[in-house]
Amino acid sequence: MTYRIARNGQIYGPYTLLETQRYIASGQVIPTDLAQSDDMQEWLPVEQLFPTSPVYIAPHPGGLPTLFPDPPNLPWWVALLLGIVTLGLFLQIWDIVETAWMRRIDATSIALFLYLAEAVVYLAKLPTTWHNIAYNIGYGPRVEAEHSLLLTLSGLVLLLASRFVFRNELLRHFNRAEPIGLRLNWILTLLFGGLYFQYHFNRINEMKRALRISVPNA
User: Fold this and answer.
1) Which residue(s) pair with 44 in the sheet?
2) How many helices (H) and strands (E) does the chain have?
3) How does pLDDT run across 137-179, given as a tens digit for each residue?
4) Does 85 lie in the same domain as 129?
5) CB-based burial label for 192 (10 Å; 0-12, 13-18, 19+)
6) For residue 172, what are the domain limits?
7) Lowest mean pLDDT: which of 27-36, 45-54, 117-126, 177-186?
């Protein structure tokens, strides 16, 4: 039998009985969360489905559980506004901030390098972009840069690769190292990238503060 856990409209799981008991014992699932087994029609408080009882939890190899630094916590809508005002430049920077955080906690992460490569292409196109904006508002000649199509295609390929590689790294981390049951929709990943990730980072940080396992970045 498996169980799903709900908190603040977000659903996590399914988890096996043993996994659920471990999360309850560790404090990652709290008594006021809602739970539903695969043969139940309604959601019930965790404290009703799992009355308090001793649960054996195998000790962590290091003695204490590993606590990871919190993800970047800028409100996603602030990132959106800054991205609009800077014509996307801030979003390029924030993608690097997000993936640099992942690189800090997971040395195998490669998303940072992909986003850096995509940022180089973006900067290479930036002068032409600014000239064309000036042309469209009547303040300058239209500029056609050589190899602009190649740069555009390269940037698109790097952007898509970056988003989905980072998505996979986030799913791996937040379902293994920090098992909160993260789910990321691939269509929203495709359309919104870093803004979509930041929305989940904000929710993850709220959860970590509620569970008292928050580790603010220095």
Assistant:
1) 35
2) 8, 4
3) 666 565 555 557 788 899 899 999 999 999 999 999 998 888 8
4) yes
5) middle
6) 76-210
7) 45-54
Report the pLDDT value the prediction gives residue 137, as an integer from 0 to 100: 64
- The more confidently predicted of residues 51 and 83 is 83
Cβ atoms of 114 and 102 within 8 Å: the answer is no
Is residue 164 one of the residues assigned to a domain? Answer: yes
Residues 26 and 117 in one domain: no
User: Does pLDDT of 52 surpass 70?
Assistant: no
In a domain, 67, yes or no: no
Q: How far is CA 188 from CA 105, 120, 165, 167, 194, in A?
A: 24, 24, 14, 11, 10
Q: How many domains does the chain have?
A: 2
Q: Where does residue 98 rank: exposed (0-12), middle (13-18), buried (19+ CB within 10 A)? A: buried
Is beta strand 34-37 parallel, antiparallel or unpaired with respect to 2-7? antiparallel
Domain co-membership, 183 together with 116: yes
194 found inside a domain? yes
Residues 6 or more apart whose Cβ sits within 8 Å of residue 117? 158
- Dist CA 69 CA 216 (whole Å): 6
What radius of gyration, in Å, describes the C-alpha atoms of the chain? Answer: 22
Separation between Cα atoms, residue 204 and residue 76, nearest integer Å:
13
**Is residue 62 included in any domain, yes or no?**
no
